[in-house]
From TrEMBL:
It holds the Pfam family EMP24_GP25L. It comes from Eumeta variegata. It is found in: Membrane. Residues 9-94 form the GOLD domain. Belongs to the EMP24/GP25L family. Its main location: membrane. InterPro entries: Emp24-like (IPR015720), GOLD_dom (IPR009038). The gene is bai. This is Transmembrane emp24 domain-containing protein bai.
Length: 148
């Protein structure tokens, strides 16, 4: 949660790997005469999600490649309007955290324990992928240091 001063912009950035699910949920305090827009972009400026005059909502996207992504909230008010900072609540979930299993369980007619096992299986697969990526990065750093 953060405050957004009138006629300003606040952005949050995060580096993400390829093929990662990102789900966000936001809520903006309503103040008459003030509006807040949001936009989600990658480092090349491609817009992944955007909405004007928001109060409450959700967004989701899947990353295509390793990149830095930013979520920006922009406050806009008219010059003659008296302005007040607005509170913004933002909850972003990435990867396995963003995946919802309720729909999967209903579609596949899974029992609660089977659904929990599926979630744990996905979580362990995610951990293995993270360790593989860390091992690869460590090897690249070691090779780079060995050259010097």
């Amino acid at each position: 949660m953060f405050s957004l001063t009138p006629n300003s912009q606040k952005c949050l950035k995060e580096e993400l790997h390829a093929n990662v699910l990102v789900a966000g949920e936001y809520e903006v305090s309503e103040i008459a005469g003030q509006r807040v827009d949001y936009v989600v972009r990658d480092s090349k400026g491609h817009i992944l999600s955007q909405k004007d005059n928001v109060n409450k909502g959700k967004f989701t996207f899947i990353t295509e490649n390793y990149d830095t992504f930013e979520v920006c909230f922009i406050s806009k008010i008219s010059p003659q309007q008296r302005s007040v900072a607005q509170d913004i609540s933002l909850d972003i979930k990435v990867g396995i955290e963003a995946k919802t299993y309720e729909g999967i369980g209903e579609a596949a007619k899974l029992k609660p324990i089977e659904l929990e096992l599926k979630r744990l299986e996905d979580l362990s697969e995610s951990i293995v992928q993270d360790f593989t990526l860390m091992r690869k990065q460590e090897e690249e750093m070691r090779d780079t240091n060995g050259i010097l």
